[in-house]
Amino acid sequence: MSSAAPTRSLSRTGQKSHVKPGVIVVYAILIFLTFIWITPTIGLLISSVRPADAVSTSGWWTVLTNPGEAEFTLDNYRIALGIETGGRKYANVNLLSALVNTIAVAVPSTIIPILIAAAAAYGFAWIRFPGRRWLFILIVGLMSVPLQVSLIPVLRDYIKVGLNGTYLGVWLAHTGFGLPLAVYLLYNYVSTIPRDIFESAFIDGATHFTIFTRLILPLSTPALASFAVFQFLWTWNDLLVALVFLSADAGTQVLTQRLLGLMGSFGQDWHLLTAGAFISMILPLTVFFLLQRYFVRGLTAGSVKQ
Amino acid sequence: MRRAPEPHSRSSLLARLDTPLWRGVLIAAALAVSGAFLLETFYFLRDATLPQWLLALLAIAWGVGGVMLLFTLASYLVEQFPATWKRRLIPILFVGPAVAVVVGYLALPTLRTLIASFYDANGQQFVGLANYVYAFSSREMLISFRNNFFFWLTFGTSFSLILGLIVAVMADRTHPVFEKIVKAIIFMPMAISMVGASVIWKFVYEFRPAGAPQIGLLNALVTAMGGDPTPWLLRQPWNNLFLVFIFVWLQTGFAMVVFSAAIKNVPADILEAGRIDGANEVQVFFHITLPTIKGTVLTVGTTIVLGTLKIFDVVQSMTGGNYGTQVIANVQYTQMFRQFNFGRASAVAIVLLLVVLPIMLYNLRDFSKRTEAF
């Protein structure tokens, strides 16, 4: 007992010595930054549930400073989603259809490139063939090409073959632009799977296809999930690809497009804009917080390797 | 007795059909039929007038299912070939689609954009370097260069990196629960689209004339302290900084998360040794932590630099490129969809490519150095 106590207290002071100096300053700075970071979003949320006149005549913070007079309503959401018209002015806001379109764009735009990239990652990692290195270098080289460079030729092809304004066209575009990074990240993961795991399957006569679908895909779940979150956020939040390849008519527009349109035509209707912005944020934020662990792992996979 | 020959003859017929060749033919036919089916359904889905949610659901199933179906059938087809052919075909099966998509969507378009940049607005007439003269001397492009390099690249990148580092280093010293909350909040904007973020920040920057109640947070603060309300987004050239801050708000979390992981990987004994030698926390940071995570800082920095050079959404939704906030990517978009000048838009895109070329080449060199044995 008497000999254990000093060592313990020594180790404790040893630990504390690098926590203590300026620890209050550290907490203060972090609280300050966090406060700045979250305030705009809180303002958006509060505004989105306030009545229209209240939003345009007083700041959202009055809800906090003067809670007695605060009123809350979900009308903004009803109008923004097109469930309730809110007068002729807002007749064609209808974010509900844009929400459906965004799901229809983002889900396949996430799954298709992952399938193609996983197959390619397996091919590059575990199948020997001539030109392997050069093809992979091509893909890595294209990783930082700005997608703006591709827009015009691809759009011209689309117009020629009738892919313009279709989901398929957008899926393929997102696939093409996301693929280099996907192949690269998944290759890094797939190539570290020990070969003996599927060696015996090979000896038993399994085909590459069986090994890929039965062994590689399940084993790569963490990498696939992390890239999936990445690509989903990217395609959900994309504006440029949607602006270029989805037509401007309201039937196929995605949320970011509609929101941009609302900012133009309803620029002073803050109750509508804030509700609309929050509608566009709900799903990605949910996915993000549920799968944050995978996402972070994907982010740190390539860059923290020593 | 009587029944016996029948199953026997049937199985022998099947057995005769069950050669690799016939199986291959059958699978090829299946591939062709499903291809045609997928094409027909594509036309159907494109032109159908079904309830929207149903259409979306069908489209998702069609797209994802179609890719899986084609891949499965194609691999069965490949398996039917004799071994030598199989060896040649299997790499194509796995790597082919990715290479085809990447070549079709990135490599070839880049070449075609390069060619188009030497032609006129409709791509009919060869105009030499005229589009590049525009790209390097027009007023909007000169403003874009200033904004992209000075405001976006310099301030956007350094603010994101420095704030990300500060939060990562500091949060590492706090209580684990506090650290988690701080990181989650700083990281959260990563999930928000730049357009959504623009709504949020437009509301913060909202301007009402003096005397009227300010509903924008920033002007409310300014007037509360006795100042005059400012139309933040119109004040040139500072409005660029207000746009850049939106980007910083979105990117700091990304930098922070990666740095945080790197910092936690710095060997504790080295840090301890530095502290025992009498280094203070600032010295430990600059002499041990920072050099150790240098590679990570470089990687994150590269990603953010690429992001600033391609910046589009924030500018398009906040100011549309007006009031001196134009950027390269937005000029390209405007030339393409407002002016319908494909030649100029292509030249501007190539300028963007030239700007990121050093990063591309660095990436490639780094990659081939690391994979000598590949």
From TrEMBL, chain A:
Keywords: Cell membrane, Membrane, Transmembrane, Transmembrane helix, Transport. It holds the Pfam family BPD_transp_1. This is Alpha-glucoside transport system permease protein. The chain crosses the membrane at residues 21-46, 103-127, 134-155, 167-190, 211-234, 270-291. Belongs to the binding-protein-dependent transport system permease family. PROSITE patterns: ABC_TM1. Its main location: membrane. It is a multi-pass membrane protein. Residues 99-291 form the ABC transmembrane type-1 domain. It is found in: Cell membrane.
UniProtKB/TrEMBL annotation, chain B:
Belongs to the binding-protein-dependent transport system permease family. CDD domains: TM_PBP2. Residues 146-363 form the ABC transmembrane type-1 domain. Keywords: Cell membrane, Membrane, Transmembrane, Transmembrane helix, Transport. Pfam families: BPD_transp_1. Gene3D superfamilies: MetI-like (1.10.3720.10). This is Alpha-glucoside transport system permease protein. The chain crosses the membrane at residues 21-45, 51-77, 89-108, 149-169, 181-201, 241-263, 284-309, 345-364. Signal peptide: none annotated. It is found in: Cell membrane. It is a multi-pass membrane protein. Its main location: membrane. InterPro entries: ABC_transporter_permease, MetI-like, MetI-like_sf. It comes from Symbiobacterium terraclitae.
